[in-house]
Design brief:
five-stranded mixed β-sheet, 50% helix, alpha/beta, globular
Length: 351
């Protein structure tokens, strides 16, 4: 047999081996690609907004529990007010965030692309109007003409408007100063302001040289100015990451329930309290009273008639209508229930 004939005879075997190698390479390559895709999905990068205050879920951030529960790579972005959250949501800079009910009402009224997915916390003593010692403010009427600071557009600002309304005043009767919590702390130390409506941990610092005149809870009960923090999510992101959003809320519901059921165990020596303290930048002993006086809804509370069962939409509408009457926003929606999506919380709560 000539070399040419031998080559022709071997061709089928040559091409068969070549095809086998090619198929094997394709299988290995496909498996590798799928592995990369799976890893990418498992490590979806999610930017979550928060306010730097001590809340139970911060313990989940500290030890990585929230990342393990969701499969996300989580980055926290701290904001000084809900107005900043709205700006970040408008630009697409974050996917999920806490936001106060007042800026929430403002954001939804202007058509920002997010929806409320759960109640975050019901504000009571964690936000308060503190008057500085030596400011000459001994009773509510003394607020007239004084320099009062608050983060503009926040729940604290909304509560301050409630205080003024309760006492026959408007913002025109005081010198209203829009400041971030850190700016309030600095101005307070310099005696540059007479009072401030703000949240912890800065509020706790102010009380060292001042006294509480009204808490947010007192304003809510006396004047109907209810305030809360909501969890909101970019509408498109939530639809595309339904499973992760449900796992996110389930983890938060569980730790909120643990806090209320085992509050005595959340002491200064508790690993969870120490984790929250490290995240917020205060001592564990300081965290304990800061956590108190606030309701952190679990799945049962979140899905109740007061919240995702219809109450949240009504509260948002009432807040929006007041903000419009005060000239803070230009328009309101007829109904806010389309912007309150209970689907994720219902699944997370097992309802």
């Amino acid at each position: 047999m000539s070399p040419h004939q031998a080559l022709n005879v071997c061709k089928p075997f040559y091409w068969m081996n070549t095809m086998k190698r090619l198929v094997k390479s394709l299988i290995i390559g496909t498996a590798f690609t799928l592995s990369l895709v799976t890893q990418a999905v498992a490590q979806t990068r999610v930017l979550i907004g928060h306010f730097g205050d001590p809340v139970p879920y911060k313990a989940l951030i500290a030890d990585g529990s929230l990342e393990r529960a969701t499969g996300w790579k989580i980055e926290l972005r701290q904001f000084a007010s809900g107005a900043e959250v709205n700006a970040a949501m408008a630009s697409g800079g974050i996917q999920i965030s806490e936001i106060g009910s007042s800026p929430l009402a403002a954001g939804l009224s202007t058509g920002l692309p997010y929806q409320m997915i759960a109640a975050g916390k019901v504000i009571d003593t964690s936000e308060a109007l503190v008057t500085r010692n030596g400011s000459g403010i001994d009773k509510p009427a003394d607020l007239r003409g004084k320099r009062i600071a608050t983060p503009i557009g926040s729940t604290a600002h909304y509560s301050l408007m409630g205080v003024l309304k309760m006492n026959g005043m408007t913002e025109k009767d005081i010198t209203l100063l829009g400041m971030s919590p850190n700016e309030i702390a600095a101005a307070w130390a310099q005696n540059a302001i007479d009072a401030a409506f703000v949240w912890v941990p800065v509020q706790a610092k102010l009380r060292e040289n001042g006294k509480v005149m009204y808490t947010a809870g007192e304003v809510a009960r006396a004047a109907g100015f209810h305030t809360f923090n909501a969890w909101v999510a970019n509408t498109k992101f939530a639809a595309e990451n339904r499973d992760g959003v449900i796992k996110f809320l389930r983890a938060i519901f569980e730790i909120n329930a643990d806090y209320h059921k085992n509050k005595a165990a959340w002491n200064a020596d508790s690993p969870k309290v120490r984790a929250v303290a490290a995240n917020v930048g205060v001592t564990p002993a300081a965290v304990v009273p800061m956590l108190d006086g606030t309701i952190y809804p679990d799945g049962e509370v979140t899905m109740s008639a007061n919240w995702m069962g219809g109450g949240a939409a009504r509260t948002i509408k009432g807040t929006a209508e007041f903000l419009k009457s005060a000239g803070r926003i230009n328009r309101t929606a007829d109904d806010y229930s389309p912007f309150v999506n209970p689907e994720f919380a219902r699944a997370a709560a097992g309802k």
